[in-house]
């Protein structure tokens, strides 16, 4: 009889397993981007080769810039938001991990009950002390410890924990991406201010010449030596330069306010920015990108972690089709009369193994699996597009730097030609062969060419910072996340 019961139990479990819900909508995982698509065209290269270093902005040796970046990374609102998201993801990991561990609680309850004489416990409604019946009122007490444990045979809980860890790691990489974007934006705004400072200096030189020209033409016009139209033209040129100076000063104010808002400084929280010379270009571009770019870009690493987490969610969705096992236990005392609660005879022990098997669920599990799979495929395609966008950013920025370098070389030649003309006119003035006004006005073309070169240098510096950002700054994932679709 004992063996018969055992075989019947095994047969029942086997039939239950064969009758569980079946997977119908597993789907097919999409493929990761091919390695050959993660590279640059052969005609894009710079004079220097390499990847950005950690704290890349210190290579400019500018104490003002270092202080501004450090201030931004210390407590800018965007940084605080990113770090709060990391803390939230960490809490989610701890919550899911705790749910898979042994749960134990202390139990205590008091139940004052009136037993119905016509109910299932009708005999207990009688008051017959000799028979142990003291109804109809009873005061039941329960005190003890309860415990429960889910047995993760199919790895559902492990997959859920892995998915939450993937999200946490993605948030960490996103924080690095925010820090990179923050430092790059601070550097670009800072050098935008420095470029405008130098522009104002050149405009002031041009303005001094324009003022002298107005005075000279005014003196000649007063003596009747020339028409007043030349005086008005000189005044018009002076006003145009003054308008440029006012516009440049307004631009500095706008850049300062943008910088102040970026780093989260108060009205007096942004230090004074003193003019300094623009640094020489230090742009470098690696000869090969390939999968190295994936490890260097924090935003790509964040997306890879999200994709990896989606694979773990697929595993959890598959495991939901299989039986789940748990064990519940209770140890304590239970009595109908409080006076008997803490006696030896009132001790109670419960050990309850449990089995839950999905059989008919109306397609809920398959719909969940299909949704998780499609969500994973969507993340894979978003990741592939992000990789292509990253390669495009590097290629476009590197190509633009090449063009700006060539333009800068040509512009320096133009300055040399304009300077030759200026020097010739000044030599004539020194020999008394031309007027001082002509000698001064010969400087104007040189200043105009210097303004054009300054604009190119500012653009080169901005593109250099953008290239540093496109290459991931000083970030590097160790080891890179490996995508293994399931």
Automatic annotation (TrEMBL):
Against Pfam families, the record matches this protein to: OEP
Note whether Nucleotide-binding occurs among the keywords: no
This protein's UniProt keywords: Coiled coil, Lipoprotein, Membrane, Palmitate, Signal, Transmembrane, Transmembrane beta strand
Provide the GO MF annotations for this entry. efflux transmembrane transporter activity
Question: One GO CC term of this entry?
Answer: plasma membrane
Subcellular localization is given as: Cell membrane; Membrane
Q: Where is the signal peptide?
A: 1-21
Q: What InterPro entries does the database record attribute to this sequence?
A: MdtP/NodT-like, OMP_efflux
Q: Which portions of this protein are annotated as coiled-coil regions?
A: 231-265
Q: Does the keyword Membrane apply?
A: yes
Q: How does it sit in the membrane?
A: Lipid-anchor
Q: Which family does it belong to?
A: Belongs to the outer membrane factor (OMF) (TC 1.B.17) family.
Q: What is this protein called?
A: Transporter
